[in-house]
Each structure stands twice: as C-alpha cells, then as structure tokens.
Amino acid sequence: MTLREVPEKMGTDASAVYRFETGQHDPHLSTVRRYAIAVGAEIDTPTGENPENRANLTFFPMTKDRDDNGQLPGVAASLSVTLYADDWLLGAVSQVFLISDEARPMSRKDEDTWVQTIVDLYQERTCALLWDIASSALKSTAGMMKLLPVEVPDLTSTEINVGTVPAAERNGR
C-alpha cells in the first residue's frame, strides 16, 4: 500500500494521516478505526481493571472501495478479549463477531454508534454468559466451545457469535 492510498481509503488528506502517524495530533476513535480498516490493522487495548487483559477490535471491509458518498458497503468486525489476569476465566479467550448477512451502507457518522453497540453488547449481555460458558468449557476435556448466536437489538440481518477457548488451546500448547 502506498502513502497515497492510505488517506484515500480513509477519506482524508495525506497531511492529516502524517500528523496522526507522527504523533503530532491525537485522532478521534473514528479516525483510528478508519486507519485500521485502511491498513488492515487491529486495535489492541487494555480492558477492565487489570492491564494484563487485552482486547483486539479488528475490522474487515467486505469490499475495498467506498461509494461516491464515502460509505463502506459493509464491514464485519471481530472483538477478541483475552482475560489472562482473571482467575475465574483462567486465561480464556473470548471472541465476538459481528457479521452482516447482507452488505449495507454504513456512513462514517454511524461508525462510533455501530462499534459502541458491539462493545456495549459484549460488556452488558455476554459477561455473565461467558462466565458460565468458560467455567464449563475449561472443565471439559475438549476445552473448546461452539459459537453461540446472540441476538443483536436494532441491527437487522446481523448476528453476534460468542465463543471461548482456553488460552493454551489458542496458542497451540
């Protein structure tokens, strides 16, 4: 990818990307997400009270081109949370996937709301579920979970899948 392609994919100018990349400017979260989409990167941040816990939010553009209004025809996202520091999960890794069955435009102004919906749903509705799932999964001999569909409010033709795997299984140990 060239230096010209990154700002073009982000829908901004090269000087804004330069200021962001060199640390001269702190971008908004929506800018960081657009950058991650443009370069195919993951966003990795500490979660919860313990800095050893990590979360990755990865966006997968369904198409490489934006339409005339700068909208992505569809985006899938994967939120992966590794909870090394929480004894009750014993290093379990959970993943939440948002997958659109039908590509539909998503404007830039809706990105914050869209991502916040994923994160809120994860925090509010799946933590208790993950507790139960992880406890039984980690005690089982297979130590693997099937993906469980979770209903997403206000997002048509969309489903969230939740799965947990012991960290040792994920790392091939």
Walkthrough of the structure:
The structure is a single chain. With 173 residues, the chain is an alpha+beta fold. It has 2 domains: 1-40, no CATH class; 48-164. The chain contains 5 helices and 6 strands; from the N terminus they run H-H-H-E-E-E-E-H-E-E-H. It has helices at 5-10, 14-21, 29-39, 111-139, 167-170, and strands at 42-46, 54-61, 75-82, 92-100, 148-150, 158-166. A 6-stranded antiparallel sheet has the order 1-2-3-4-6-5. A hairpin with a 7-residue loop joins strand 1 (42-46) and strand 2. The longest helix is centred in the last third of the chain and has 29 residues, at 111-139. The chain is globular. The model is unreliable at 61-65, 72-76, 85-103 and 134-173 (pLDDT under 50). One of its GO terms (molecular function) is DNA binding. InterPro entries: Cro/C1-type_HTH (IPR001387), Lambda_DNA-bd_dom_sf (IPR010982).
Largest sheet strand order = 1-2-3-4-6-5
Number of E-type strands = 6
- Name the beta content range: 15-25%
Query: What percentage of residues falls in helices of 4 or more residues?
Result: 25-40%
Helix/strand order, N-terminal first: HHHEEEEHEEH
| Structural class determined from secondary elements | alpha+beta
List keywords for this structure.
alpha+beta; 173 residues; 2 domains; 6-stranded antiparallel β-sheet; disordered C terminus; globular
